[in-house]
What we know:
Low-confidence stretches: none
Strand content: 5-15%
Radius of gyration: 20 Å
Number of strands: 7
Mean pLDDT: 92
Amino acid sequence: MTERLLDEMVNEGGPVDLVQADAKPLPTLVTSELLGLPETDRAQFGHHVEILFSLSSSGEEMQQSMTILGGMLHTLIAAARKNPGLDILGSLTVETDLNDEELLGITIVLLIAGLETTANMLALGTYALLRHPEQLAALRADWSLIDDAVEELLRYLSVVQIGPIRVAAEDFVFEAQPIREGEVVMVSLPAANRDPLGFEDPDTFDIRRGTTRHVAFGTGPHQCMGHHLARLELAIGYKSLLRRFPRLELAVPTEEISTWEMMVTYGVAELPVRW
Length: 275
């Protein structure tokens, strides 16, 4: 899938917006294949996921998108029950006794988690590497560092800006701050991943840091179930792109690169590149 997207970039010729040409299509293709989403519906799925991730969306817009997604996925679940394929949804209908509502919940989580987060990491991670040429040069000189580079990008960028959200089960005190039963507590993953108690010189981007102790995917029983897939997509995505285009560079000044400010996940709105 990655090589096909890069072939299309070559055929189109630069400069191109890497977000639209590669970073968004790749996780869309992967997630669609895993869930068995019809090709004709993939753009619509992506549109509604964007609305759900946007902090600018009204409650009415979010409810409407959730309703539309729910209807589309109910249709997909019914089709999977009638003629199960080899995708995740087909497997769940055959190998479990989950009801339609449970399948809907799982499918929505996989759909939402598999698109925006990985897409933003692919584009923003490429931007970070281009902004740190010495790190990019080190990676190009030794591709065995690709997995370490992925871990450091996950830590350094921490694209999930909001959450996890929890509710206190009982009264307790944390760092002299009283928390009452029933109060909402939101954990900052970016703050945790830049904590000097956990990482030496945490504001420095260093692909040789060699740590997987970050919490970009959460931790414990609520750790992202798709972290293995996300890591694989990122490693293949970065390595394929950077090897195919050894002279990849920004096509506009850095001050013209705009970032998402009102989204659950952080990223770049566009990333014009040339090679």
